[in-house]
Amino acid sequence: MIIADLKEIAGRTYPARRWTRNLVGGASPIQASSFAMGYVVLEPNGGQVPWHNQDQEEIYFVVDGEGEMCLGEERRVLARPPPPHLGVHDPGEVLLQA
Description:
With 98 residues, the protein is mainly beta. The protein has no helices and six strands. The chain has strands at 12-14, 18-24, 35-42, 57-59, 66-71, 74-79. Strands 1-2-3-4 form a four-stranded mixed sheet, with no helix packed on it. A hairpin with a 3-residue loop joins strand 1 (12-14) and strand 2.
C-alpha cells in the first residue's frame, strides 16, 4: 500500500494558465499503469489543459466552478453537481479528517 500526504505533493504552474498537482501518475509518488489523476486549477477566461494524448485513462472530478471537457469531437459542460445527501461518521476516539 502506498500512502501519500496531499500536502507534500508539489504542484506546478504552467503557461496555459493552470496549476496542477499530480495525485496519481506523472510526478506523484503514487503510480498506476492504467490511470492518472490530478488536481487542476484553471484560471478564468481561458485557463486550460491543452490537447494531448495519454496512454492511461484520466480521471477528472469537479470540485468547484464550471468548464468544458473535450474528448475527440465530444464536448461537455462540467459543473460541480448539487450536493448529495450523505453523511460521514467518526466512531473512533481520534480526529477524522476526510
